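Notes from the 1:1 (GR / supervisor)

We went over the backlog. Supervisor wanted to see one worked example end to end before approving the batch request, so GR pasted a single chain during the call. The sequence is below; no edits were made to it. Supervisor asked that the structure be written out right there so they could see what the output format looks like.
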Amino acid sequence: MEQRDAAGYGGCATAALGAATALYVWASSLRTGLHMGAGFEGHARDLSVLWTELPLVLLAGALIPPVTWLLTLRLPRGHRTLRSRALVAGACTAAVFALATWGLHTWANPHHPDHIRLSGALASDLDQ
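Structure output shown during the call:
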């Protein structure tokens, strides 16, 4: 029962932290600001990101950390104690969590914000 509790609490904590962090990174990004109308007088507002990007970002944020936690906690079975497996699982989860957060931040804050496609056009809608 001790292992099940550790896996459950760790998985729930990483899911909540991952979803909250993903939501924060996505909502505070330049890309989301442009889509939500942060331009002049709401120019080029595209609210479709609320039902296309937001659910996928939340789902990835809520699933990637706990899946990593559970896989690294369950796979190294053997003579190791629960404490050592939990430390390995925590380190692996923290590394994957940091990598996923960096990837989301890089995707949501492009190097050239002038070329963000808002309506599928080849040129930016903000140039018109």
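Supervisor's comment: Residues 8 and 70 are 9 Å apart (CA to CA).
Batch request approved.
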